[in-house]
Amino acid sequence: MGSKITIIGAGSVGATIAYTLSGENIASEIVMIDINKEKVQGEVMDIEQGTCFRDPISIVCGDYEDAKDSDIVIITSGIARKPGQTRIELTQTNVNILKSITPEIVKAAPNAIYIIVSNPVDIMTYVFTKISGLPERQIIGSGTILDTARLKFALSDHFGVAQKNIHAYVFGEHGDSSFIPWSGAYISGVSVDEFYELMKARGKDIEAVDKEAMLTYVQKSGGKIIANKGATFYAVSRSVCQICARVAASSDSIATVSSMMHGEYGIEDVCLSTLTILGPNGIQGKLPMRMKKEEIEKLKASADTLKSVIAQIEW
User: Fold this and answer.
1) Do 39 and 88 fall within a single domain?
2) CA-to-CA distance for 28 and 1, rounded, in angstroms?
3) Less CB within 10 Å around the terminal CB: N or C of the chain?
4) Are residues 26 and 91 in the same domain?
5) pLDDT tens for residues 95-116?
6) Whole-angstrom distance, CA of residue 36 vs CA of residue 45
């Protein structure tokens, strides 16, 4: 028996999440909610017509009350980022949308695990945490799970090694103040720098990783995709479905998702991404990773960047 998953927002990201989930064995029931009913009805019809190739699944266009007994609620509502626009510039508009949604959905599904995807995701996760009244373990921001996926792809492409062998992460804001803690970047138990030396010694034609260029690739990929095709939705949808799978699993796992900080690395009262333990009971805490002093300072700087935006929000 799969999970009941409600998706709020039927834009490109919400619809693609629904489509991706329809091909997985995570959900047995999907409820899609959006102010634009015709759009939802069209998305539901398009998606459900391809479900004959899998075990039975229910996909419906619903209202907030239809979210009752949801195991997971995914919030994607908000204005999409325009070419050249930063995530931070979206803040007030999308915060206002979230404030209108929150009481309705929390009333309908008070026990669900909530996955916040709307941008700027760290701010939205913080606001939802503050206004929802839900236990913090039930609130997961998609955070830098997508940034981490981009990093793993880039390292895999650079070294010609399978992504599943790469353990490297992006910490901080899902945005321009993010950073890569290279002290915790490994390829099958070998540091990235050591792996380069080992492959070089074996005669592989390979260059050392340009770490600044790698970070730029991670940070600017979204903007490049938006400039080229107008929106990003495939990779983020796969990332969100991965969070759903981990929440629906029988045991905990580790992911770079955004949640409230309570003194970890000397940071409090802000949501950002570090290694986080999550599973069927939601967030179970942070996994402290040994970092260099300068890396911790970068994490603190990212937190300060987010706090400066939070301070400007009209609640």
Assistant:
1) yes
2) 7
3) N
4) yes
5) 999 999 999 999 999 999 999 9
6) 15
pLDDT of residue 84: 73
pLDDT, tens digit (0-9, with 9 covering 90-100), for 9-23: 999 999 999 999 999
pLDDT at 87 over 90: no
Dihedral over alpha carbons 165, 171, 175, 177 (to 10 degrees) = -130
Q: The domain spanning residue 105 has which CATH number?
A: 3.40.50.720
**pLDDT given for residue 90 in this prediction:** 76
CA dihedral 174, 314, 99, 79 (to 10 degrees): -50
Q: Is the pLDDT of residue 88 over 90?
A: no
Say if residue 122 is in the same domain as residue 174: no
149 appears as a binding residue in the annotation: yes
C-alpha–C-alpha distance, residues 248 and 253, integer Å? 11
Give φ, ψ of 102 to 5 degrees: -55, -50
Amino acid in position 172: G
Task: Let me know if residue 268 belongs to a domain.
Answer: yes
67 labelled ligand-binding: no
Q: Is 262 a catalytic residue?
A: no
Q: Same domain, yes or no, for 59 and 162?
A: no
**pLDDT band at residue 166 under the 50/70/90 scheme:** very high
Residue 120 marked as a ligand binder: yes
- Is 212 in the same domain as 102? no
**DSSP, res 51:** G
- pLDDT tens per residue, range 129-140: 999 999 999 999
Paired tokens of 79: 């204005």
Final residue belonging to a domain, choices 141, 172, 194: 141
Distance, first Cα to last Cα, the chain:
40
Q: Nearest to residue 295, comparing CAs of 204, 171, 199?
A: 171
Is 148 among the annotated ligand-binding positions? yes
- Annotated binding residue 202: no
Looking at the structure, tell me whether residues 77 and 218 fall in a common domain: no
